[in-house]
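This entry is passed on directly below:
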Amino acid sequence: MSDSRVIIIGGGLAGLAAAVALSSRDVPVTLLESRPRLGGRASSIIDQETGQTIDNCQHVAMGCCTNFLHFCETIGCSDLLERQRELYFIGPPSESGPSPCVTFRGANLPAPLHLASSLAAMPWLSWSDKLKLGFALRSLARLPESAPDEPFATWLQRHRQSPAVCEHFWHTVLVSALSETLDRISLKHARKVFVDGFLLNRTGWEVTVPRVPLTTIYDEHLTSWFREHQTDVRLKAGVKKLIETNGVISGVELRSGETLAGTNFILAVPQNLVAGIVPESLAQHDHVRRLEQIQTAPIASAHLWFDRSLTDLPHAVLLGRLSQWAFNRGVTDQGHYLQVVISAAFELSTRPEADIVEQVSRELQAIWPKARDAKLLHGRVITEHRAVFSPLPGIDDLRPPQQSPIANLQWAGDWTLTGWPATMEGAVRSGYLAAENVLRRMGRAEQVLQSNLPVETLAGWLYRQA
């Protein structure tokens, strides 16, 4: 093999984004993935009882995820995604009757006024809460980038946010976006979600959901794209060690014993695997040693099949319940299929799977009256124990830039310093930034990273930092 190839280790979204960026620019790439499929955490499995392909977890992107959406356009899979211009919020359980459903949609007004009417329509928040919420959102947007980081719960308390608005607004949004609790989420990352997603541009909040199993996009579709672009993709090719020669990486040793030479390398594996792959000299560097301090959070996904339809809604955000977000996957040969996401699923680790399925099923049937006689045909729970890194205060001090201490080695992964939390957008950004560094080393100063959504005029005026 020519040693001019770029060798990318890891076939998750970060590695895939780097490979696509380089391959589309005619750079020879070899992509090594230890599993028999591409996609990393964005993957699917076959449910043994139903025989149906199901995702390990529902993955969604927001309109502000410009790099992820660009990645999908580049590989030609945008038609496999569906943008939701309405979200459906189901209010918390109430003894007085059914929980209200509020449709969250953007009005034909400039940001940030576009969402004001939807927030005002939420009956589970008092008018006093809504007023204080509006002031807090403005304060959050006007917060200087240099402001000291702190737990977001502390900031909310200082801005007089009631328990109700904390639980049924701030927590509802952030637990889905960051998979952590308010007392552990950093102010900096909470601000990122709300400002980029909801306040600066009318389309930033719109959610994009895959219409097909994840494996169809990130394995089957991408495999064809790589074949068309002469990208060398090797599955079941786990890397044992990076080989260092005279202070640079000269090759990789596979677990099979085979070695591959290259000029530039991108290591795109989960952060907990980095130390075991890099040379010993690099394993002791602060870039690598700090990775041990990064904490992670689990996300659980409950998959349920019923004998009849529970709802016609395509999805629903559920407040005040174990279930957080239900996605209606329609009618299959095995029944009416729903997937329910439970982020920050720390408490589920000690609970039996059947107990979780039963509670989720009861919650869904209690929300929609016509579903109360529905029979659960089958249910299972999949938990990604290290789904995301926990965005604790100071987390960015632990995240390295894409350029490693060795000139021809780049890091890629949502855990690298991207300015974003652990999202698909963060993963793609890291891959793009690593690719930019490789191109620069080749004498090609090309921009791969895509621009953010433009800040609308009114939002820019309202949120000028003091």
User: Anything to note?
Assistant: The two ends are 57 Å apart (CA to CA). The chain has a mean pLDDT of 95. The chain has three domains: 6-41+212-293+394-441, 105-205, 296-389.
